Amino acid sequence: MNLHEYQGKEILRSYQIPVPRGEVATTPGEARAIAERYGATVVVKAQVLTGGRGKAGGVKLARTPAEAEAAAERILGMDIKGHLVRKVLVTEAAEITQELYLGAVIDRAGRAVTMMTSPAGGIDIEEVAAKTPERIYRVAVNPFLGLLDYQTRELGFELGLDGRQVREFTRIAQGLYRAFAESDASLVEINPLAIGRDGGLVALDAKVVLDDNGLFRHVQLDARRDLEAENPAERQARELGLSYVKLDGTIGCLVNGAGLAMATMDVVKLSGGEPANFLDIGGGARADRVAAALRIILADQNVRAVLVNIFGGITRCDEVARGIVTALQEMPTGVPFVVRLVGVNEAEGREILSQANLITATTMREAAEKVVDAARRQATLAGARRGAA
Amino acid sequence: MSILVDESTRLLVQGITGREGQFHTQQMLHYGTTVVAGATPGRGGGELAGVPIFDTVKDAVAATHPNASIVFVPANVGGADPIYEATDHGIPLVVCISEGIPVLDMVRCFHYLRLNGTRLIGPNCPGLISPGKAKVGIMAGHIHRPGSIGIVSRSGTLTYEIVNELTNRGYGQSTAIGIGGDPIIGTSFVDVLALFKDDLQTEAIVLIGEIGGTDEQQAASYIEREVRKPVVAFIAGRTAPPGRRMGHAGAIISGGTGTAAEKMAALRAAGVHVAETPAEVGDLIESLGVSRATSPPASS
User: What is the ipTM, given to two decimal places?
Assistant: First the structure.
């Protein structure tokens, strides 16, 4: 789960990491009021769960309350990479001399939390890693000991900080590590960690990603999920316990198992089609869950055909078949279905589907080719209808 | 031979009285696995399908001497606790089926187990099967048959798909092992490759990977250096968008790394035969002239 910058900064603040004061506004008037109260130059920043806000024009400097209002006017309602801006953070501007990077990530290969820092702050760390990897310094955190002070001192001196700054950097790095560990994060990033005119360090941005598997013990963090920023279908699927990711294609996919679901999308693409979604119904799905999954797929207006690919094990083919029949009875659709059922109770499943007038297939490749073909015919039909009208 | 589990496996089931634990204990018994004990706190003294149940792993170990354990305890109930319980009582192989253990718990668990020399398979995995010998997992036994191909995978149903493809073409498996779909898992591709390369029954290896992380790239460099047996690979997720988690907690392209394309390229460069589709895994195995299975399919 991704947090907004303002939410991330609240967490950093609670670990005594210096963050300029700031508040959230949802209207230009609110932005103006905040700037008036601060009586200082502010930055108005779009709060969306995606990177590249600056390049998209979602971050503006405002010297007066009127400028803050105008900036908020322009930014609110903006579309940044498909994310609608509903909130801005109005935060006091800082005069800075240098931008650093500080972050904690899970290093999968090293099976450890790694602290990373770089003197090349203010740009994407991925870009630094690609172009000047020697400008990134790392230490691995021992899971039993936690981050040690000497490790943060090493990082601080590698960054070229002076003795006083290194002490401050150690405090910030320790706070960041504790924030990471105590909120079950998978990423906490301060970019930039700026050096101010006075030589002090201040966090000017915050990116926090929480481990979904850890949310059950962080109810107060889970409650901060921005439901409006989530795709409605993905939100509905999550609430039903389904893994669903919406894509831009025309072929709806309903599969059991994440690996098989990805492979099914890949084979659809190889067969000349574009998948409309990733959807894993999970192990042991019953008919009602299958029906719910199909409703989500069919609600996507781009879907021209649906491919159901089930390898029965814990999931029984007859349950899936019943779910398909239920969904089709509830919401009759002109969208063609190609169904491939293999494994446990496959014969019973086929029997249930035989009355439903669906296209069947025995192999994945055959199923993918049939569904691509069916989607093309649907598109032609739709085109003809539009032509007639 | 085969790896990790066989006729000598004496299995403990942790969380034996839950819905999944009960069902799969019966399935494993039916397959012929020697299940010696179950453990569920507060249910000691009972039994399931003739398997005695103990309150603690400690009691189960003292009475029945298991040499492997399978964990069904839900992650939001036990987290990594059942894994610690098994390793602290000396069980050398722990297979964790449970999905949803927080990644920071697994970081600690991984290093603790390494200190203790326990081998963990998973979490969030289907387990493993040495066909005709033992099934320690939740896969359908009847699609497997004994044979010469070692299979290692991050996925569940995709593995069944490929096993089925191979079995239908007459190729059996030495051991098929699902290592799990989480970012931090106990046993990596490289660990399993090291076992398959020395296993006499295994003539060829099938590696089934997916987007996220660099485990496949590490496997590629290990194969290039150490593995003389032919390896066929399939990588799922070529159409997955970056930054989105595709079902498995570990299946995510982050910061532009972990794509299917880079994994396929690394494997190809290491001399691995990379299949475009699951079915092509079968074509490639056929082209390698691997021995077909001689024994009939095991009963379900």
Answer: 0.92
